[in-house]
């Protein structure tokens, strides 16, 4: 048994003091951290519960964007009227993930920091460079159906499993963080990192840093033409094999004025290639341009054998997501929110 000290601060300054240095683990919804503690993957000596901090607001910014508090629940975010009207892509991505029960508990900040679902990472009996740096990678040469086709290294081929983050990448979100040293902002493209020689580091947060909020820049021009597609082994309650967030701004002449495309579950981070999006600009929204975009997005993709199928799957998924986005945003709010904004269990 591992004894754990539990703190439930009421103010951010106290939470930052307790979190300083990174020895204590912050806990928000607990839907990932508690699983990792039960498996023995994480053994923090102290937990700092951040759910009492005033970080659960969802507020419009003066610039026309939105600020999602770190402890806002995934369900409340997905069903928030401003998210639904301005960022339907984000609503769709969140609702494609997990289950209603988990989305009611999981927070926006925690979603960004959920760990990989590589099965070897969860099995403390086998080597894993992400869990135990320098021990080796059991996935390479092992079971690789869900693993990376882009951006992997010889040290780790894990994928980032989040659906929400794929939409946040496409929407060019900015992560607001603070520590005892002050506050800073991290562009979403720089928040998660590729594994390189240090796969134990999933992101660029520093020890003791707390996510306060996620800022969505104004993106009204994409609201009418966006789509989130998720391909998985069963219809619900499963992580993606491949997912795509696509958003288009289409002019009255049918030409693309701006485009965003991000792939999920294919790399250690949501995968975006701005040059592939630029290829669409000025082109008629149609399959010729969409296929060229998909080809550039997947340039350099390499499978591990069992996951080779992900390369053509991702290419077709990009084209289909762009076709769906061009046709118009689908309102896939499949579960009605109750009056408290929560999902029915
Ligand atoms: C069965 C199951 C199925 C799932 N399916 C999906 C899916 O299909 N798609 C998907 O995207 N997700 C899925 N999830 C993952 C789920 O979305 C995450 O577990 C959840 O978003 C994590 O949020 P949390 O608040 O519970 O985080 P916690 O478990 O509380 O924390 C996760 C990590 O984030 C850190 N942390 C939390 N908040 C902060 C903060 N504000 N600042 C700094 N550090 C912080 C914690 O220290 C911890 O390391 C699934 C989970 C389960 C259990
Ligand atoms: S792919 Fe990464 S997480 Fe999975 S076993 Fe290898 S090092 Fe560990």
From TrEMBL:
Highest rank taxon of the organism: Bacteria
Protein name per Swiss-Prot or TrEMBL: FAD-binding molybdopterin dehydrogenase
UniProt cross-references to PROSITE patterns, sorted A to Z: FAD_PCMH
Boundaries of every FAD-binding PCMH-type domain copy: 1-221
Keyword Transferase: no
Keyword terms of this UniProt record: FAD, Flavoprotein
Pfam family for this entry, one: CO_deh_flav_C
Gene Ontology MF: a single term: oxidoreductase activity
Protein species of origin: Massilia violaceinigra
């Amino acid at each position: 048994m591992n004894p754990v000290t539990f703190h439930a601060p009421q103010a951010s300054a106290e939470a930052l003091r307790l979190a300083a240095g990174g020895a204590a683990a912050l806990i928000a919804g607990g839907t990932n951290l508690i699983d990792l503690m039960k498996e023995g993957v994480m053994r923090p000596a102290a937990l700092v519960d951040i759910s009492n901090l005033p970080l659960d607001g969802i507020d419009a910014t003066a610039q026309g964007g939105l600020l999602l508090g770190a402890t806002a629940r995934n369900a409340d975010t997905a069903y928030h009227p401003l998210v639904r009207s301005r960022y339907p892509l984000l609503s769709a991505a969140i609702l494609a993930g997990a289950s209603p029960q988990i989305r009611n508990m999981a927070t926006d900040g925690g979603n960004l920091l959920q760990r990989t679902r590589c099965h070897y990472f969860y099995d403390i009996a086998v080597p894993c460079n992400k869990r135990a740096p320098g021990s080796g990678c059991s996935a390479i040469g092992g079971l690789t159906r869900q693993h990376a086709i882009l951006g992997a290294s010889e040290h780790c081929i894990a994928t980032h499993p989040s659906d929400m983050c794929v939409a946040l990448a496409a929407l060019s979100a900015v992560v607001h963080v603070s520590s005892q040293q002050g506050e800073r902002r991290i562009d979403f493209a720089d928040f998660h990192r590729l594994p390189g020689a240090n796969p134990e580091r999933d992101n660029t947060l520093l020890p003791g840093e707390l996510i306060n909020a996620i800022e969505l820049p104004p993106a009204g021009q994409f609201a009418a033409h966006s789509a989130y597609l998720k391909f998985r082994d069963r219809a619900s309650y499963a992580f993606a094999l491949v997912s795509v967030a696509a958003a288009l701004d289409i002019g009255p002449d049918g030409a693309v004025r701006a485009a965003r495309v991000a792939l999920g579950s294919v790399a250690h981070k949501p995968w975006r290639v701005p040059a592939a999006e630029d290829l669409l600009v000025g082109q008629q929204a149609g399959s010729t341009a969409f296929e060229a975009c998909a080809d550039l997005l997947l340039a350099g993709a390499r499978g591990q054998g069992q996951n080779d199928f992900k390369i053509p799957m991702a290419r077709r998924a990009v084209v289909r997501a762009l076709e769906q986005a061009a046709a118009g945003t689908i309102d896939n709010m499949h579960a009605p929110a109750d009056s408290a904004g929560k999902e029915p269990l």
